[in-house]
Design goal:
The chain is α/β, with parallel strands linked by helices. It has helices at about 40-50, 60-65, 65-75, 90-100, 135-145, 185-195; strands at about 1-5, 10-15, 20-25, 30-35, 80-85, 105, 120-130, 150-155, 180, 200, 205-210. The longest helix has 11 residues, at about 135-145. The structure holds zinc ion. Zinc ion binds near residues 5, 26, 29 and 31.
């Protein structure tokens, strides 16, 4: 079976299929994407996110998010303007950064749908465990690119699939809200096709520079 890739519109063929799940692999951008018939409706999706543990007091999550926080602190100062895109129900990253006086707005289509913040431009945007939830990755990366100032950085965190991972037993694909999974090549495709200057991949931290 084939279907068009939601990132690059090229053809994808079946990559994995069992009784419950069906993923395609795009031949061009190497993205791995879920069959659209498995997408949750917005009510179920929201319900599912409410169970995602990302509380400000959750030390495990704070440690988990540390590569993003460290990266913001390394490249930006308190005069820069940031956006936490896809903040979820509890905007931990922006809270941590605000506690040390960074300026960070929050946006989340389900929990903080404040379209006003999408009218500004930002020096940095954080996307912590967000991009694997994109139903329309092309549209979302276009939006993220346009929200950045020149030389701004888009700092993402997601688990990257590579060939040594046993996909059938990979926990990351079992979350029904994980609909688009990335390989290294996918990030290079995004960099080249959205005209980012640069992309740096460091384990689960992916940083694009406009
Ligand atoms: Zn593709």
């Amino acid at each position: 079976m084939t279907t068009n890739c939601p990132l690059c519109s090229s053809i994808g063929t079946t990559f994995f299929k069992d009784e419950k799940q069906h993923f395609y692999l795009c031949r061009t951008c190497k993205g791995i994407y879920r069959n659209t018939s498995e997408y949750l409706n917005q009510t179920d999706e929201k319900e599912r996110y409410q169970h995602h543990k990302n509380h400000i007091k959750d030390l495990g999550y704070i440690k988990f998010a540390d590569p993003i926080i460290s990266s913001v602190k390394k490249y930006f100062n308190k005069n820069h303007r940031g956006l936490d895109f896809g903040a979820g129900h509890t905007p931990v990253i922006s809270e941590i950064l605000k506690n040390v006086n960074y300026q960070v707005e929050i946006y989340d289509p389900l929990f903080f749908n404040n379209k006003k913040v999408l009218k500004n431009k930002y020096d940095f945007i954080t996307c912590c465990e967000v991009i694997e939830h994109f139903y329309k990755p092309k549209k979302e990366f276009e939006l993220l690119y346009n929200l950045l100032k020149p030389n701004g950085k888009l700092i993402c965190m997601t688990l990257i699939y590579h060939k040594s991972i046993d996909f059938e037993n990979w926990f990351y694909k079992n979350d029904p809200t994980h609909v688009f999974l990335y390989q290294k090549e996918t990030f290079l495709w995004i960099k080249n096709n959205f005209n980012f200057q640069n992309v740096k991949i460091d384990n689960r931290l992916i940083t694009f520079t406009k």
